[in-house]
Design brief:
- By secondary structure, the chain is of the alpha+beta class.
- It has nine helices and 19 strands.
- Strand 8 and strand 9 form a beta hairpin.
- It binds succinic acid and cobalt (II) ion.
């Protein structure tokens, strides 16, 4: 169980979040790495896992995208192996994210783990997202510069870097130390010796991403079928003119979509999208019947959450009296408000036992909920 040591989340949010970088010494006391470099290399061999090796030899940078069969070819000079979404594949690594629950779950993206040999790093660069980088085994020298305009260059087609910057942070981190870097602050971490780093990354959609995902939702559903109409059309002088009131009417058609309850449904689903889930699949032929789940509840069988499950909820103003919309890896579940705390408990722990929550009143609801979760491949019986 990873827990931040003497960390004042309120002060952190007020002073540093999205504002200033900061080093937090001994953020984790007696930090134990949730995995080692051999396990990391194992993940980097998998087709479905996003990994890369960045290396530098005689000032020449290389970046090779995984999966890797043979590491020796790419692990030349000073090199780092970086693996994305490790929380979706390792329960221990995922548990590191629990320490960051002072940031809303929907803002959390993934845990990236890197292994570097002495002298290695990915070079000075800018990131678009906030990041907490935890120092695991070994030590690493971090320099962070001020947030201002920097020219980026590409020493390798897939690698963006900035040239030198004046450091405002210049410190060596040891196991259990952590650095927080907001977007736009240039940084450069150079391994002092063989080291493991854990980067907790966040998501912050931009307008293009939001609109394109909402457009996908609009196309996948039948909610938005209103068509432009103008029975009040009057003769105009020039047929090529688009009148302002027509611009307004078209804009309002779009605004109506965004102002509808469906937009919230879209957001819940979109923001609960997981980068990867361990064994996410529709259980298809193997679907469990509710009767089977009832039997398992009767035997007080435990249920385990797959790695990489993401859940969020929205209290919709119009139905907040009775129902709350909960979203688990894009699946929408309507939860009676009375059951919300028990449901959040189920969603937020890695194993769940029915005896803790089931009452005569809620048993049908929990049977249906667990049947949905198990058949979606998100939870599995013991
Ligand atoms: C790393 O872990 O090697 C890179 C982290 C970063 O600078 O974003
Ligand atoms: Co970075």
């Amino acid at each position: 169980m990873y827990k931040l040591n003497k960390f004042d989340a309120e002060v952190f949010l007020q002073t540093y979040w999205q504002k200033r970088p900061v080093v937090i010494r001994q953020a984790f006391v007696d930090f134990q790495d949730p995995l080692d470099e051999h396990e990391l290399a194992g993940l980097a061999q998998e087709e479905s896992i996003d990994s890369r090796i960045v290396s530098r030899q005689d000032q020449s940078w290389q970046l090779t995208q995984g999966p890797f069969d043979d590491f020796t070819e790419h692990c030349q000079g000073q090199w780092s192996l970086l693996v994305q979404n490790v929380d979706g594949y390792s329960e221990d690594a995922e548990s590191l994210l629990n320490a960051f629950d002072f940031i809303p779950a929907w803002r959390t993206d993934d845990l990236m783990v890197s292994f570097s040999v002495a002298g290695a790093g990915v070079g000075p660069h800018l990131d678009q997202y906030d990041v907490f980088i935890i120092q695991g085994k070994g030590s690493r020298h971090w320099k962070v510069g001020e947030n201002k305009e920097y020219n980026e260059h590409t020493p390798h087609p897939k690698l963006k870097q900035v040239s030198s910057f004046e450091p405002i942070i210049d410190e060596v981190l040891h196991p259990g130390d952590m650095i927080y870097i907001p977007p736009g602050f240039p940084h450069d971490g150079v391994a002092k010796d063989e080291c493991l780093n854990y980067s907790v990354g966040f998501r912050a959609p931009n307008q293009q991403e939001l609109l394109s995902s909402f457009a996908d939702y609009a196309l996948d559903t039948t909610y938005f079928q209103q068509r432009y109409s103008d029975p009040d059309l009057v003769l105009r002088e020039k047929s090529s003119e688009i009148k302002q009131h027509e611009v307004t009417r078209l804009r309002e058609m779009l605004l109506k979509m965004i102002n509808s309850n469906h937009f919230e449904e879209f957001l819940g689903s979109y923001l609960s999208r997981s980068n990867h889930c361990e064994n996410e699949q529709q259980n298809g032929d193997m679907a469990f019947e509710e009767e089977e789940i009832i039997l398992m509840f009767g035997n007080n069988q435990s249920f385990y959450r797959a790695s990489g499950v993401k859940s969020v909820y929205i209290e919709n103003e119009s139905n907040a009296e009775t129902e709350v919309s909960v979203f688990v890896n894009e699946i929408a579940i309507s939860v009676p408000k009375k059951q919300l705390n028990a449901v959040l408990k189920l969603l937020n722990q890695s194993d769940w036992s029915p005896k803790l929550e089931i009452t005569n009143e809620n048993s049908i609801f929990f049977v249906q909920l667990m049947t949905t979760l198990v058949n979606a491949g998100l939870w599995y019986p013991e």
